[in-house]
């Protein structure tokens, strides 16, 4: 479960050993969980932290003397907040488990079993988020019901709620249509009493079907009659609903003054996209909502596919922007040829189409996606006077009981599209909640092949972001950023593939690639009279690699580059858990005059303790302190403390991710030495910032 920094896990660790606590934090971060850790050293500090800031989970060692587990439970319960406490133990015995659960711990985590500890934290965090979501949803439902009631009353559409054929609610427009003065006149009246005699029998059968839970028709045309006996043509739309907690049917009844055939034609046009002839987005979303509801309530199986033409921007350059609609219309026409009666298609966004396969399992959804992909790849699309072979990237999701919410369904399908594009396009990737492991394995395999190809065929590229001095230094300094060239003008950031590279032993090769190219660039800049310092990230995989240090020495000599122009950045969390290897690496590269930087500094439990064992040249302050800096006085104070202590130790500091003028103004007063961020200068393949 990878969470973004916008939704970081606020974890309080009760442990007498700061090293053990830091190891836990590092393990969670290695698993992709953004952690904002707290570690109180005493019971008073624990109580103060609980009161001062929100906490998601408490991980408390059963052997901790600073804050014993019974005291932890007492203070957590006293807050009245939903804060799960996990008991951290060395081993599980019947007595230790009984004691922990008796005190109120929700789960037990084994210190010496990192995977079990990770799973316990993930599961309990997910449960906590689910409880919070449920509370939010319940509040939203209450507010939504209140607003819906007000909207229905003010709506111009005649709306009524019917239970077992009887009126239980009707708005003013509905009452006026039939000539009632107040709801009292219609309350408890059968809906059949408002239907013309010739339609009563058919309408009675419809009501019986609705009472048995059968799906209502999208439209039901009939002749209605008002209180004076006057008849008029009408169309009814039915929607299952709840009124005051009771299941019922919402009826929207509209008068049809024009020819019914013409009305149906107008309605058909209203539901269609005029460029492609497919359904438009609102109509498709209603059908998708019905499919999701069916999956949640009736265990239905449906498939959603989203597809986009590959290399869209390049295609537009080839055919011209004025032909964009013609291209999409041609793709839609080909799509219609592939679909059967069990699927509907729509134009979902500017250049993406959507397909809903009704009553299809994962095999059927995958087969349809492959038919669409193959049909597009094997067909020459005619666009005006031009013709072109266009492939598509397809992302899909199997809608079922495990994933039965609109937002989840669309998010998973879109992820599939982006993932397919990311590995080269002309590919379909279908998410099936019951086959996640298989889909993930296929995705990882494709990424490994792609990374191997990028290393072998120079498909990585480097971007550079200026690092600007606040203390008057005009030397050129750039942060080096790795990107993967997707081959169609798109660049993939490293967060998309570094985890996979680490799991498959490719990190050290990527490090060599980046460092080698960085040294070559420094050499080119020096030969043109533009000496430049580059900051280059190094992963923990290279810390124990003697070959990398030798490679650095060789490349510096080949390109005639003094080592002082190369700053190798190590993540603070990785150094803390690989301290000896980091010390040896720093000493080895120092033989070539290269310098060491620590990035993500300050995010650990005791960051400055690390500086007693490793003396870097630079500290790059963790970006979590910079985000929304003007609104966070605590972060402002923390940055001042880091800058002051670093200056006392003769270490330079960098604040990254500077996004606005207000943050920049604050950083001027904190004593930070350098800043970087898109507010000052964006990153790019060229080094053209004027440091003077």
Radius of gyration from CA coordinates: 32 Å
- Tally of structural domains: 4
Mean pLDDT: 86
**CATH homologous superfamily assignment of the largest domain:** EAL domain
**Number of separate strands:** 27
Q: What is the count of DSSP helices, taking H or I runs of 4+ residues?
A: 22
CATH fold category name of the largest domain: TIM Barrel
Q: What order do the helices and strands come in, and which of them pair?
A:
Elements lengths: L8 E6 L3 H13 L4 E4 L4 H10 L4 E5 L7 H11 L5 E5 L4 H10 L3 E4 L3 H41 L4 E5 L2 E5 L1 H7 L21 H12 L8 E6 L5 E13 L2 E10 L4 H11 L10 H18 L3 E8 L2 H8 L4 H15 L4 E5 L5 E5 L4 H16 L2 E4 L2 E4 L2 E8 L6 H17 L4 E5 L4 H21 L3 E7 L1 E2 L6 E10 L5 E2 L5 H6 L3 H21 L4 E6 L8 H14 L6 E6 H6 L1 H12 L4 E7 L5 H4 L7 E4 L11 H16 L3 E4 L5 H8 L5 E2 L17
Parallel strand pairs: 1-2, 1-3, 3-4, 4-5, 16-17, 20-22, 22-23, 23-24, 24-25, 25-26, 26-27
Antiparallel strand pairs: 6-7, 6-10, 8-9, 9-10, 11-13, 11-16, 12-13, 14-15, 18-20, 19-27, 20-21
Helix pairs in contact: 2-3, 11-12, 16-17
């Amino acid at each position: 479960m990878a969470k973004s920094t916008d939704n970081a896990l606020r974890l309080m660790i009760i442990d007498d050993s700061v090293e053990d606590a830091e190891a836990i934090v590092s393990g969670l971060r290695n698993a992709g969980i953004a952690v904002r850790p707290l570690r109180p050293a005493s019971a008073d500090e624990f109580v103060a932290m609980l009161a001062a800031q929100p906490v998601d989970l408490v991980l408390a060692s059963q052997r901790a003397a600073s804050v014993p587990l019974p005291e932890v439970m007492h203070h957590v319960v006293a807050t009245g907040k939903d804060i799960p406490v996990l008991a951290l133990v060395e081993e599980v015995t019947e007595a230790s488990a009984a004691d922990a659960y008796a005190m109120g711990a929700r789960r037990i985590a084994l210190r010496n079993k990192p995977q079990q500890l990770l799973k316990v934290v993930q599961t309990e965090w997910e449960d906590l988020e689910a409880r919070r979501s449920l509370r939010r949803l319940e509040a939203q439902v209450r507010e939504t019901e209140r607003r819906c009631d007000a909207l229905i009353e003010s709506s111009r559409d005649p709306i009524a709620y019917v239970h077992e054929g009887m009126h239980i609610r009707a708005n003013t427009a509905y009452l006026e249509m039939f000539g009632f003065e107040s709801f009292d006149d219609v309350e408890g009246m059968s809906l059949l009493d408002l239907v013309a005699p010739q339609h009563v029998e058919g309408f009675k059968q419809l009501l019986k079907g609705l009472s048995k839970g059968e799906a209502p028709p999208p439209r039901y045309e009939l002749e209605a009659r008002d209180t004076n006996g006057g008849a008029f043509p009408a169309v009814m739309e039915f929607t299952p609903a709840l009124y005051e907690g009771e299941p019922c049917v919402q009826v929207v009844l509209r008068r049809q003054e024009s020819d019914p055939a013409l009305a149906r034609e107008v309605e058909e046009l209203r539901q269609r996209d005029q460029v492609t002839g497919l359904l438009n987005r609102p109509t498709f979303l209603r059908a998708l909502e019905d499919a999701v509801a069916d999956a949640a309530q009736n265990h239905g199986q449906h498939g959603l596919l989203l597809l986009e033409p590959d290399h869209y921007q390049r295609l537009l350059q080839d055919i011209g922007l004025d032909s964009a609609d013609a291209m999409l219309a041609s793709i839609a026409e080909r799509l219609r040829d592939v679909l059967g009666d069990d699927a509907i298609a729509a134009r979902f966004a500017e250049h993406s189409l959507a397909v809903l396969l009704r009553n299809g399992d994962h095999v059927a959804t995958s087969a349809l996606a492959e038919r669409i992909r193959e049909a597009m790849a094997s067909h020459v699309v005619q666009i005006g006077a031009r013709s072109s072979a266009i492939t598509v990237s397809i992302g899909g999701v199997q809608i079922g009981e495990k994933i039965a919410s609109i937002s989840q369904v669309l998010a998973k399908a879109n992820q599939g599209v982006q993932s397919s594009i990311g590995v080269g396009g002309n590919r379909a990737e279908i998410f099936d909640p019951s086959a996640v492991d298989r889909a993930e394995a296929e995705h990882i395999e494709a990424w490994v092949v792609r990374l191997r190809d990028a290393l072998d065929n120079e498909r990585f590229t480097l971007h550079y972001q200026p690092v600007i001095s606040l203390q008057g230094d005009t030397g050129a300094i750039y942060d080096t950023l790795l990107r993967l060239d997707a081959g169609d003008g798109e660049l993939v950031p490293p967060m998309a593939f570094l985890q996979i590279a680490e799991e498959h032993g490719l990190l050290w090769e990527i490090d060599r690639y980046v460092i080698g190219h960085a040294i070559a660039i420094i050499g080119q800049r020096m030969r043109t009279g533009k000496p430049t310092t580059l900051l280059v990230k190094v992963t923990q995989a290279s810390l124990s690699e003697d070959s990398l240090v030798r490679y650095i020495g060789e490349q510096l000599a080949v390109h005639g580059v003094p080592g002082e122009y190369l700053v190798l950045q190590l993540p603070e969390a990785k150094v803390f858990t690989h301290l000896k290897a980091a010390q040896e690496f720093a000493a080895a590269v120092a033989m070539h005059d290269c310098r060491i930087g620590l990035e993500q500094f300050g995010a650990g439990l005791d960051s400055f303790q690390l500086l007693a064992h490793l003396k870097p040249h630079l500290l790059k302050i963790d970006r979590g302190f910079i985000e929304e800096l003007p609104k966070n006085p605590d972060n402002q104070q923390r940055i001042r403390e880091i800058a002051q202590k670093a200056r006392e130790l003769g270490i330079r500091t960098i604040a990254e991710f500077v996004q606005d003028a207000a943050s920049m103004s604050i950083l001027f007063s904190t004593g930070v030495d350098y800043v970087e961020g898109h507010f000052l200068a964006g990153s790019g393949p060229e080094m053209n910032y004027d440091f003077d």
